[in-house]
């Protein structure tokens, strides 16, 4: 009996097809062929090509979000959590960009088409940061009166560290000295949050 | 008698020509024609087309550096100077991008060709920041032991504020809320430097 056609299987196949043909050429028919099903079967799960591409982009971004979530749910002082969160984000992005540059470039194209998905991902990331900052304020480790609400402070931290997570800077992540630059910005930001 | 052909006149004419034809089409012959001279006369001042384009890029970047230099040589506590420096930089970039978007796009293309010129401009900017930070440390307003040397701290400040001066973010500078985002990052950075 054939394996059931789940959304997850379709998304996996889509990533393979995108890797093989590139974002410009990959079609829903290619995905269906790779799965040995009709393109109608794919469209039953994803109603348009754009929806399929947005879903595969979301899945790619979710992998990073999951790693970050485990930092937020971990224990330890807020300052340590923030350090770990920023480091995890930078490392995850660096790996994505460095381990498979072609796939990374492909997803950069997809992300530019699915701005809603990217915006939700950013909001989710800022929300995680806000949780850490809120906890640090409650514990008295971070200043409660600085830089507005925990959400505003979280946006500021996210923006201040953009060089180490925004894909526009991917070319910088393999340069010598980037680790030191990251540690300097991370210290600056953490000092800025402390009482 | 004809006006003397100075480098400055050539650079002015080059900017005009670039504005008119775009960076893809503008030639040295166009510049010479605009000045009513032979292209040989232009080449006597700038030996190659690349050298001319690099010089006009430098002139464009220097306009911002000059504005910033006057902040560094001004008086007042280092914290205030830093605020003013970052605000001046953001405002200068926003104006360049917003007042004449076509010329800004042209210079973005030119800057990508003249990476040496851009790197020197960035080093110059970081050097100005380091001067402010050094002074703030001497006066005891900034922590002397945080984030390494004044130069390292300056790099961190420059990187942390990239969203508000790096041309890759130019599209963000006209969005509602960008002012608040800037003020949040500026506060975060300043807090990070203080004792």
TrEMBL record, chains A, B:
Residues 4-64 form the HTH tetR-type domain. The keyword Ribosomal protein does not apply. This is TetR family transcriptional regulator. Keywords: DNA-binding, Transcription, Transcription regulation. Residues 27-46 bind DNA. The keyword Protein biosynthesis does not apply. The lineage of its organism: Bacteria, Bacillati, Actinomycetota, Actinomycetes, Kitasatosporales. Pfam families: TetR_C_27 (PF17935), TetR_N (PF00440).
């Amino acid at each position: 009996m054939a394996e059931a056609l789940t959304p997850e299987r379709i998304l996996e196949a889509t990533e393979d097809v995108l890797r093989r043909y590139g974002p410009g050429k990959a079609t829903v028919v290619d995905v269906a062929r790779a799965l040995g099903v009709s393109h109608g079967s794919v469209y039953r799960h994803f109603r348009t090509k754009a929806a399929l591409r947005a879903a595969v982009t979301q899945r790619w971004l979710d992998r990073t979000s999951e790693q970050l979530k485990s930092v937020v749910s971990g224990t330890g002082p807020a300052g340590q959590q923030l350090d770990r969160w920023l480091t995890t984000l930078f490392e995850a992005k660096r790996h994505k960009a460095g381990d498979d540059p072609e796939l990374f470039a492909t997803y950069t194209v997809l992300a530019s088409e699915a701005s809603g998905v990217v915006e939700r991902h950013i909001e989710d990331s800022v929300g995680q940061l806000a949780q850490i900052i809120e906890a640090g304020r409650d514990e008295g480790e971070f200043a409660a009166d600085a830089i507005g609400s925990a959400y505003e402070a979280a946006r500021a931290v996210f923006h201040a560290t953009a060089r180490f997570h925004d894909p526009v800077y991917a070319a910088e992540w393999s340069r010598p000295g980037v680790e030191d630059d990251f540690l300097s910005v991370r210290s600056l930001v953490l000092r800025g949050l402390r009482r």
